Amino acid sequence: MSTIAAAPRTWDEFMEGIWKQNPVFVMVLGMCPTLAVTVSGVNALSMGVATSFVLVCSCALVSLMRSFTPKEVRIAVYIVIIATFVTVVDYAIQAISLALYDALGAFIQLIVVNCIILGRAEAHASKNAPVPAMINAAGMGVGFTIGLLALGVVREIFGAGTLFGVSLFSANFQPWVIMVLPPGGFFVLGSWLLLFSWWARRKEAQQNA
Amino acid sequence: MHETAFQIFVNALLANNFVLAMFLGLCPFLGVSGKLETAFPMGIATTFVMLVASLCAYGLNLLLTTFHLEFLRLISYIVIIASSVQLVEMVLKKYSPTLFRALGIYLPLITTNCAVLGVALFQTAREYDFIQSMTFSFGGGAGFTLALVLMASVRERLQLSSVPEVAQGTALSLMLAGILSLAFMGFAGLGG
């Protein structure tokens, strides 16, 4: 296989997770951390990076072990692999920034039960070689991070009047507190989905016309 | 600060409802809440698994702390939950085949319900004793069931109303969840 032919395929594989199969907006997977930690841009970004790290590492390992993992116990094997990497991330974040660790709370450990990771391990990594599996996982990770940021940024701007901790408005700004409270998470994600569905419909109508 | 068992229960059931205030167990909440007749058994089964998992996690944590193996906590909890789901499955199959059939595919899926792992992790982080742990997991399970049943009832009613085509599906469910969550905020401070 020539490199010229392989390059677009690799690129497609990577882009799939970002756009066509975006885990947050298209597949609506991994909702719990998506809604819980996105009260600010920084939290959203760190959660996205942590999840992506676990995703890429576990997919690589699952893919390496795919030929000698017994079929009957594969899910158990995946879960133990994922739990191992989550423990690594958990201790790493604790060492790097204790404030961030407190903000994200139990949701770092709850990455274990994030369905995106188990879904990727089962649907892609268990059937492909390590390199394509890692590229696919990286695309999904970036897509997930973009989804988290889309929520985190909107919620932080409206709910606190800041962006990544930098104040955006004058002192007269009244924060829209509901945005950083639980209902705000549901409303913002619902609005994003509404927007995407409206956009998809409009495109479809244009094509038919 | 010592919370009484009653405070823990009310807190987990209403003020800090697992689904609507803490965002745990959203996948089944959005996935299974289409019909009331599946939502309720699902809630009961999850509550049961939570109780078993919380019991096992409590014992396991004592063991791990004794041997200073805290870094193994996450891995052992997830294995415990997976096996307790299996256990519940076998017990149900033996003693109540009707209920087993009614729950079907939802039973094994409880393993990846973050509310179950959440119970185990929170009770460890808050250093609850035995009674507190059990009340906490029971309250959490009851809260999960309550949220699921409420959501399913609203969605059943919504099927009779005309919703704009754009808003159908997940977007509508999320908006509904937002409104429910707003309502549950009224319980804030109830558990003290």
Q: Let me know the number of strands of chain A.
A: 2
Tell me the radius of gyration of chain B.
Answer: 17 Å
- Uncertain segments of chain B of ≥5 residues (pLDDT<50)? none
If you average the pLDDT of chain A, what whole number results?
84
- Separation, N- and C-terminal Cα atoms of chain B: 11 Å
N-C termini distance of chain A? 41 Å
Which term fits the overall shape of chain B?
Answer: globular
Number of helices in the DSSP assignment of chain B:
9
Percent strand of chain A equals under 5%
Main-sheet strand order of chain A equals 1-2
Strand-residue proportion of chain B: under 5%
Helix content of chain B: over 70%
Series of secondary-structure elements of chain A, N-terminal to C-terminal: HHHHHHHEEH
Tell me the major beta sheet of chain B: none
Count of DSSP-assigned helices of chain A:
8
Q: Domains counted in the coordinates of chain B: how many?
A: 1
Helix content of chain A: over 70%
Q: How would you briefly describe this protein structure?
A:
The complex is a heterodimer of chains A (209) and B (192). Chain A is an all-alpha fold. Helix content of chain A is 70%, strand content 2%.
Summarize the topology.
The complex is a heterodimer of chains A (209) and B (192).
Chain A: H1 3-20, H2 31-36, H3 41-64, H4 74-96, H5 98-104, H6 115-125, H7 130-160, E1 162-163, E2 166-167, H8 182-208
Antiparallel strand pairs in A: 1-2
Chain B: H1 5-15, H2 26-31, H3 36-66, H4 73-95, H5 97-103, H6 106-109, H7 114-125, H8 130-158, H9 170-184
Helix pairs in contact in B: 1-8, 3-4, 3-7, 3-8, 4-5, 4-7, 7-8, 8-9
Fill in the keyword field for this structure.
heterodimer, A: 209 residues, mainly alpha, two-stranded antiparallel sheet, 2 strands, 70% helix, disordered N terminus, B: 192 residues, 0% strand
